[in-house]
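Worked example 2:
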Amino acid sequence: MHTPWRNSEFVRNGILASLSLSDFEYIRPLLESVTLKNRLVLQEPNRQIEYVHFVETGLISLMTVSSGSILETAMVGSQGVDPASVALGAGTSSHRSMVAVPGSAFRIRADDLRQAMYARPEIREQLLRYVHSLMIQSSQTALCGLQHHLEQRLACWLCLVCAAIDDNVLPITHSHLSTILGFHRVAVTVALTQFERQGLVRKTRGMLQIHDRELLERKACCCYGIVAKTYKRKAQSQPILESQIRVVVDHDECAATRSIR
């Protein structure tokens, strides 16, 4: 097992930071620093993948588009890469990738990354570890949309974003939240107003400030704890057992897994 090279002053992306120094030096000349502008669409579904983005700061929302409907199925922060399907040999993406929170990333041409994965197996291994975590997040998000009510899902999403960008101030509008969660804008506004009355958040124009993260986590459905644990385990390079590769469907078990500690 290699010794990971870590230098948070240069690279924040979890995948790049987990590489050995030799692997990172191999891929480093292929990386280009880019700005992730708000609402910028990086990838459309069923289109050839030209670039892959290793997120440094900000957040990318992965949206499923079908018959005029749009719904977020996963999010990619500084622990991840998009489109991750390149690691599986895919030439196209099944989702739309849109910047939900502005930031920065290192991008690489998809062909260059494929060559790097071939030349350096550990790069491919790190990407596959992330793909596994992303699959769990996507599966859990699908279940969440069926099993949990708006306030639970909203609290879960806000907590996941805070963890992903390491900030309690979120440049998110009510309209964008309604698109992501698949609810009418009015319903989202009502839920946020209720959160504000409870002292959980503070609403300003185009911005949400999280005031009580701990209480918000308690309001979130179990999906928050499951997804957060998955990424925490990956960041610590802990092996994931077969028994852990599943989504939680039992409500009692769901309640028992709220804490990520």
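Residues 1-8, 237-253, 255-261 have pLDDT under 50 and may be disordered. The chain has two domains: 14-143, 146-256.
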